[in-house]
Amino acid sequence: MNIEKYIKLIGNELLPNIQLTTDGPFEPIIVKNVSNTWKTIGSGNYAGVFLHQSNPKWVVKVYGRKPEDLKKEVNVYKKLGKHESFSSLIDYGDNYLILKRIEGMNLFDAVVKGIRIPETVIRDVDEGIAYARSVGLNPFDVHGKNVVMSNGRGYIVDVSDFYKHGKCRKWDDLKKAYYKIYLPLISKYHPPIPFFIVNSVRRGYRLYRKIKKGNK
Ligand SMILES: Nc1ncnc2c1ncn2[C@@H]1O[C@H](COP(=O)(O)OP(=O)(O)O)[C@@H](O)[C@H]1O
Ligand SMILES: [Mg+2]
Would residue 203 count as lying in a domain? Predict the structure, then answer.
């Protein structure tokens, strides 16, 4: 699709029809969407992600919080260029990015739905992380909701924190859980795990890391 037309659809049919709110500074974004043509396909701590029915190849990530960080994510994408373990930046506006769509689901949802996560996904993300380091970025905040799997391959879809400093353990910890718990136990029988349990594990993990950090 032609980019001017797509940007018009964002201005006319998406932005006036969505509302991004939150319950508190550490709570994720809540999306209200009354558009007939744009579908909400994801949300995170900063943004809502939307798909227009006429163009399945792109998505729009609208920042609901910290719009000043948008420029940082743009710069990360510019540094990354094109690599098979990442989405890529098509264009951007004041409060949104247009990104290549990775058709599939994030790892958190895959566990909730009982869809098997193959090891290739883990390896692809490892490769993406190594590549990001090689271009001078710091792969930060790589976790289950920021990795989308598509046809058995893994893609890091959220690079908004790659400019940060310090060590982020999330991916190492997720990998440990994958090899110690998921592969031997869960994936064998691949039961769906109820949302509230996966969400509690996520919350528990965040709390555990916070306490550990505080005790240092
Ligand atoms: N390029 C993409 N293609 C498909 N789905 C995506 C894409 N980017 C994000 N998503 C979905 O939207 C969710 C939120 O996007 P994310 O970039 O993580 O936002 P935030 O910065 O707010 O955490 C992700 O968990 C994923 O499910
Ligand atoms: Mg995210």
Answer: no
Q: Which long-range contacts (CB under 8 A, 24 or more apart) does 26-29 make?
A: 29/64, 29/65
Instruction: From 74, 100, 126, give the residue that closes a domain.
Output: 100
Task: Report how far ligand 1's centroid is from the alpha carbon of 216 (Å).
Answer: 32
Tens of pLDDT, residue by residue over 71-111, are 999 999 999 999 999 999 999 999 999 999 999 999 999 99
State whether residue 149 is helix, strand or coil.
strand
Comparing 216 with 192, the larger pLDDT belongs to: 192
In short, whether 156's Cβ falls inside 6 Å of ligand 1 is no
- Say if residue 77 is in the same domain as residue 126: no
- In the DSSP assignment, the letter for residue 102 is -
Structure tokens at 197: 């349990």
Contact present, 126 and 38 (Cβ < 8 Å): no
Check whether residue 7 and residue 43 sit in a common domain. Answer: yes
Q: Which residue range is the domain that position 185 belongs to?
A: 105-198
Residue 93 sits in a domain of what CATH number? 3.30.200.20
Is any ligand 1 atom within 6 A of the Cβ of residue 143?
no
